């Protein structure tokens, strides 16, 4: 069989960060002791004509990428186990293979949403499956929600590596509209405080992509004010991550950073129910 031609990719700013996270998952999959084990990500990297070294991701930072994805995968799995006929909105999906990694119940409807050029690339590189729909749109151009049935089912909204790139007012309106449209559900995502955003000048993948971050979330109170139905069921500081595969260097750095005022909220993971 002839080898498929490599895809040339030309993405800028926050769209370009999808290459960094893809490469991080691929590096993890190739490691002797994978944290996430995303072998499909490794296959996709092989099909892209790009100098991935320029993303700023190395084996050390790849472990953090994989650990973040594994945590959110676990929360998503818990929700889908409890609600096997749920609708999933994977916002800012990039080239994430989450829909392929998870053991999705057959009644799940899965929507991957991202910019049109990202979705076009995704369709060329990743297989679709029954119950799967891709939508090419900015997540804050809310007309895309009309393509998703609000028919009384529960919704799982996954927004990994997304919210801090959104304009705060438009991001809040996105959350508000989703809560109003569905009978109930859960948001799972990561966020950064104002301090966390300022510290991104030290984040090489963000610098290399010339990405700009806007929406600071300084704690649950910033989220619960969006809609009266929202409740925060989990807030987990990135400094409190635990589990197999967490790099020793990360544990040591986290212990030191806890002593710095405000660092515990600089980066955090949230579950919001409604």
TrEMBL record:
**One example GO MF annotation:** methyltransferase activity
Top-rank taxon:
Bacteria
Q: Does the keyword Methyltransferase apply?
A: yes
User: Gene3D superfamilies given for it?
Assistant: Vaccinia Virus protein VP39
Keyword Oxidoreductase recorded = no
- GO BP annotations listed: methylation
User: Keywords, A to Z?
Assistant: Methyltransferase, Transferase
InterPro entries annotated for this entry? Ppm1/Ppm2/Tcmp, SAM-dependent_MTases_sf, TcmP-like
Q: What is this protein called?
A: Polyketide synthesis methyltransferase
